[in-house]
Amino acid sequence: MSDDIAAPSAFEVPEGYTPLDWRRGFGRQIGPLYRRVVGNAYRMGFRVEDHHTNGMTNAHGGMLMSFADMAWGHIVSVETSSYWVTVRLTLDFLSSAHLGEWVEGGSEVLSTADDLYVVRGRIWAGERTLIAGTGVFKPIQRRDPRPGEKAYAASDARP
Amino acid sequence: MSDDIAAPSAFEVPEGYTPLDWRRGFGRQIGPLYRRVVGNAYRMGFRVEDHHTNGMTNAHGGMLMSFADMAWGHIVSVETSSYWVTVRLTLDFLSSAHLGEWVEGGSEVLSTADDLYVVRGRIWAGERTLIAGTGVFKPIQRRDPRPGEKAYAASDARP
């Protein structure tokens, strides 16, 4: 994107959110995306920009789904410090997000039976739920813990 | 995207496919996407490029979902020449697509009861099914017919 440099000053990010540093691939292409730690949980967020919109200048359904995939599946990273793949997603589209709105998402674990993470997720903007649904994710390979993940806190050399 | 001009020569597009001319918004951001008319039906396609990939250099789940939304819902445009919204999607992820692969998708209508289009859809690469699922789409506003849509052929001033 040729306008990367100008982007950060184009809007304000709500307090507590820090940018995710995806520097290549699809994560960068649809960014910028942000994350905020909330107690033992987290939320992800993004501001609806022109490159996220459909013909009605609302966030495109594909963008909201991509965001849901990341925001709901991220809990597997937090819980297991693993790479993971998406097995199944069911998404109900309840409302739309307009250009300029701040969109947030998160999930909670319903089951980890058979090493599949089944989560209940929600995407929202202010008081409006945009998408509600269920995700099934499968951890495929352990990796080194990263900041914000449970194993990172445990392995950290804090005093 | 600053490399728009170079993109068309970077890979070959299978015969019969023509580019979709989305010039702004999310459709442009995740493109280029292509369409091919097959008898009374159509297919959509794209080549997996670096900006579509995840950390394993496969097509990101979000990209495949966004493509599924467009490739499956497009049947509502063809049938009704309407703007439409996505109501529900259920997607089973069966296989992954590698960088450089050509990915295709399409759907068939199962029901149009209550003015909701329920479709069964598939996304594939060669012989491999990548995603199978169901989509529910709602036409929201009629517009002028476009080439490739049923009403366009009917309204066309052919001899």
Written description of the protein model:
Chain A has three helices and seven strands. Chain A is of the alpha+beta class and 159 residues long. Chain A starts with 17 loop residues before the first strand and ends with a helix. Strand 4 of chain A pairs antiparallel with strand 4 of chain B, so a sheet runs across the interface.
Write the layout of secondary structure elements.
The structure is a homodimer of 159-residue chains.
Chain A: E1 18-19, H1 25-29, E2 34-38, E3 41-47, H2 61-80, E4 82-93, E5 102-111, E6 117-125, E7 128-142, H3 150-155
Antiparallel strand pairs in A: 1-2, 2-3, 3-5, 4-7, 5-6, 6-7
State the assembly state of the protein chains: homodimer
Total beta-strand segments of chain A: 7
The percentage helix of chain A is 10-25%
Q: What is the CA-CA span between the terminal residues of chain A?
A: 42 Å
Strand order of the largest sheet of chain A: 1-2-3-5-6-7-4
Main beta sheet strand tally, sense and closure of chain A:
7 strands, antiparallel
Radius of gyration of chain A: 16 Å
**Number of separate helices of chain A:** 3
Mean pLDDT reading of chain A: 89
> Largest interface, with Cβ-Cβ < 8 Å?
A-B, 38 and 38 residues
Q: List the uncertain runs of chain A.
A: 1-9
List the helices and strands of chain A in order.
Answer: EHEEHEEEEH
Shape type of chain A: globular
- β content of chain A, as a range? 35-45%
Look at the helices and sheets of chain A and give the structural class. Answer: alpha+beta
Could you give a quick summary of the protein structure above?
The structure is a homodimer of 159-residue chains. The first copy, chain A, is built from 3 helices and 7 strands. With 159 residues, the first copy, chain A, is an alpha+beta fold.
